[in-house]
Amino acid sequence: MNSANMSQQLETAEYLATLVAEHAHGRVPRELRRRQVLAVATELFIDRGFLSASMDEIARRVGVSKPVVYELVGSKEALFHEVVQAEIARLGERVEAAVNAEPDPTEKLRAGTLAFFRFISERRAAWRSLMAMPEASMTSEMAGARRVHARLVASLLMRSAAESGIDADPIVIDAVAHAINGASEALALWWHAHPELSAEALAEIATQLVAPGLLAFSNPGRTG
User: What proportion of the chain, given as a percentage, has pLDDT over 90?
Assistant: First the structure.
């Protein structure tokens, strides 16, 4: 799936079923059927986890044969990869838009972390099932998703530095991006046990934790 498709508005399986119903049997456009498979698979992975979700059940819910599902999206592993990448793309777009709306480095950090936690709040079940999945078979998939998000954060930091006339060290920026990611993700996982806190409260904690170091690395007079 290309980035344009991954970044589209989240579509529910129920909504896509209504679009499919508008077409005669056997005449459903391939791309629409593919979007339906992805939506159904997303909901099933969230409900049951990767290991318990089956391609048979996905095919049954979509109303096609299992070979059709394989032909549209490939293996179960490939399908899960696409579902995770779509989730990461939506999160990345939300964070990037929030960061780009603020001129000050600390406010960029606050806005980005707030966007992150608000997204997690809206997609709490998905985040818990997809991004915090314990199955060892999915460890590399999760690591890959985290690398994608870290690269996004690093690119935003590099752009911010350039706009401020700072000659930033890419290695340092990469380290800072991973630190921000790690702190935010750890807080998000901790949040499951403490839902009484708001997204705003979590964003403030993350900002207070990370901002001093971020500002130090942003100092153009800093020597390495």
Answer: 30
